[in-house]
């Protein structure tokens, strides 16, 4: 099997936040950041796999601090884990106010990217060569995340399906929800 170090595909990308990225409140749209992160995830995944890649899932997106126009956003990303046909790309996003030098942690998350061949079929990705403890821990976390995400999908699909409408209404009665009289 072919193995590659995550250092070969690790990427840091920086972009200036321009006024057209802002929402009505003057802060940068979360969607702009997601789009930027998706591109960086693609770069890392395609470098590791030497293949066309697609985004399968994104876990753990939280916008911890708002991003202002004029700030520099840096996305640091690397392959944390590889499965058979997918890779988990871990990333940390920081904003830098270039005038004050203040750096804020904006977001950390995980993109699952799949490699596809020229026929659009999933293909095996190279294994990951681990050279230090930090990367070893990230690989173990990636494996745990993959299992957690699989369990979550299973739970969302099946666990609530067996409940009747009446049972669901009882379960949700303390929530902020108004049931139509004919439900
Ligand atoms: C995601 C996709 C590849 C799964 O295909 P599938 O044939 O159902 O996949 P399988 O169940 O055989 O799983 C294949 C791999 O995907 C992973 N996977 C499948 N669904 C997943 C999900 N929702 N989240 C994370 N990983 C997932 C599996 O764990 C497996 O990983 P591994 O090969 O590394 O072990 C397929 O649905 C797809 O191509 N989706 C469209 C992706 C796309 O076009 N993205 C661009 C968005 S516009």
Main features:
binds coenzyme A; 3 helices; 183 residues; 30% helix; alpha+beta; single chain
Describe the structure.
It is built from three helices and seven strands, in the order ββαβββββαα. By secondary structure, the protein is of the alpha+beta class. A hairpin with a 3-residue loop joins strand 4 and strand 5. The N and C termini lie far apart (56 Å). The site of coenzyme A has 13 residues, from strand 3, strand 6 and helix 2.
List strands and helices in order, with pairings.
Layout: E1 3-5, E2 11-16, H1 30-49, E3 52-59, E4 72-82, E5 86-96, E6 103-116, E7 127-129, H2 133-159, H3 165-171
Parallel strand pairs: 1-7
Antiparallel strand pairs: 2-4, 3-6, 4-5, 5-6
The chain binds coenzyme A.
The site of coenzyme A has 13 residues, from strand 3, strand 6 and helix 2.
What is this structure, in a nutshell?
The protein has about 180 residues and is of the alpha+beta class. It is built from 3 helices and 7 strands.
